[in-house]
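To: structure desk
From: M.T.
Subject: fold request, one chain
Message: Could you run this one when you get a chance? Sequence is below, nothing fancy, just the single chain.
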Amino acid sequence: MSTIFSPEHINAHQALLQFLSINPVQQYDVSTKTWHAAEDIFSATLTTPVLTISAQHLNAYLVQSILAQLPSDVSNIAIRLHPLSDAFSASVVQVVLNEAVDKAWLAAIATQYYVDVFCITDAPRLADPGVIVMDMDSTVIQIECIDEIAKLCGKGDEVSAVTELAMEGKLDFTQSLRQRVSVLDGIDVNLLKGIRDSIPLMPGIHALLQTLQGNGWKTVIASGGFTFFAHYLQARLALDGAHANELEVVDGRLTGRVLGDIVDAQVKAQTVLNYAQHFDIPLSQTIALGDGANDLVMMGQAGLGMAFHAKPVVEAQADAAIRFGGLEQTLYALV
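Reply: Done. Structure tokens follow.
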């Protein structure tokens, strides 16, 4: 039996949700604009690409419009609601494709329809144990801590400009970090507590962590920022680890130096590998989540490299990119 959404239902959010709840696995015929039952291949281990579409008010018109823009050699095989659809902030459908679409197509669709959209083959499985390693600044939290510290000595704009260039990959990270930290010389370490105690968490972080932790995942921060904040977040969010740079403090004041080796891109990537090996987790069950060029190496190391509201250079190289939603969108990329 085929279904065509009527004009009064095609734009209705609840109409699509109700339809896919009653008819759980469907296929959409672009030429006839009809939906019909499809084989349930989601219960098997998927080795074909899965297109995920996420929006707050998803409807049949939106899904049909996106599927109609698939390249001519790409077709949908099966469509269903994501198991976590409407559990948080968005309605989500998964579409099994015969072939993957490229990142340029995904970026264009995301921008045109204001949706988060991913196409992933062999995605990690939520129900199996895994490891997620997350950047801290502008990922787990909404601020860049070093910029906030610099504001305390009137150098906020100066440091922020260097941070931006480093995040875009236009400066050597280690060199730029030492340059920025040197500006902080003399700041009373007690002033950092004000930043720490009012630190704004990124929307969706609780949903992401609670869901992953509830399914046996290990959750870790690997940051080019500072242990003063990372260790606080580890305790607050019940993380399994937090790795960052330690600011040197003498007589209660910052010296403008960092102790030990810098946590750079290579250290972040090694963190993914270390936790996977320690907990006997296959790399296919690992996620690296971040927003800057300094996160690209760990994204390449992990089974799934996820960009979050990232710089263009990062979006272009990551396996998937969250452009509009919160961190809970990461869950929709899993199977």
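Reply (cont.): The chain has a mean pLDDT of 95. Let me know if you need anything else for the meeting.
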